[in-house]
Amino acid sequence: MKHLKIKIMSIALLAATTSSMGQSLNKMNWLNEPQQWEIKEGKTLVMDVPAKTDFWRISHYGFTVDDGPFYYATYGGEFEVKVKITGNYVTTFDQMGLMLRIDHENWIKAGVEYVDGKQNVSAVVTHHTSDWSVVQLPDAPRSLWIKAVRRLDAVEIFFSRDDKEYTMMRTCWLQDNCPVMVGLMGACPDGKGFTAIFEEFKVTPLADQRRLEWAKKQASK
């Protein structure tokens, strides 16, 4: 029993220790690398989102596109990811934010999408076909923070104006027990492109929920 209690403490300590580590933007990978981008001081990604790019599969429109820029690293297990996003949105459907991606048929994108002259918090969840949820913001904040938490087979998505108080915008399914590409995406389906700035990107691994519950049950025997 003593060994199991120590194991529980070790799992929790690992999560707490890892949470203090930032994600290095210099050690990530591109899907659909844009022509113009740069990393400033290892902490800020600035990219010109190319024109006529998007992520979408089949539903409603009948077409599939998978050519937006996506800058990512791969993670397993459970985690929290968040980023501060700032965009000079110009044309309807200009968008930027986080993406969690297993493959070209299974992914989530969440962030800000510009629709009819207004900023919206937006999420697209895709499992073979895409859906879209969107809520218009009452104003046009310069920046927003977007956060996603992967727990077991679910992802919770939040937004914030100050990185302190977060509002949930979506809960959705994502296959668990498999690696996930986690990172920063932009798209400009109808416009001529725009500049997207990503700051304070951070991925925090979380202690595995099933393993913690199992260890607690064993310790109580």
TrEMBL record:
UniProt cross-references to InterPro entries, sorted A to Z: ConA-like_dom_sf (IPR013320), DUF1349 (IPR009784), UCP022704 (IPR015987)
Q: Which UniProt keywords apply?
A: Signal
Output the Gene3D superfamilies linked to this UniProt entry.
Answer: 2.60.120.200
Q: Kindly state a single biological-process term from the GO annotations of this entry.
A: carbohydrate metabolic process
Signal: present as a keyword of the record? yes
Segment forming the signal sequence: 1-22
Question: Which SUPFAM superfamilies does this one have?
Answer: Concanavalin A-like lectins/glucanases
Pfam families in the record, alphabetically? DUF1349
Record's protein name: DUF1349 domain-containing protein
Q: Which organism is it from?
A: Bacteroides faecis
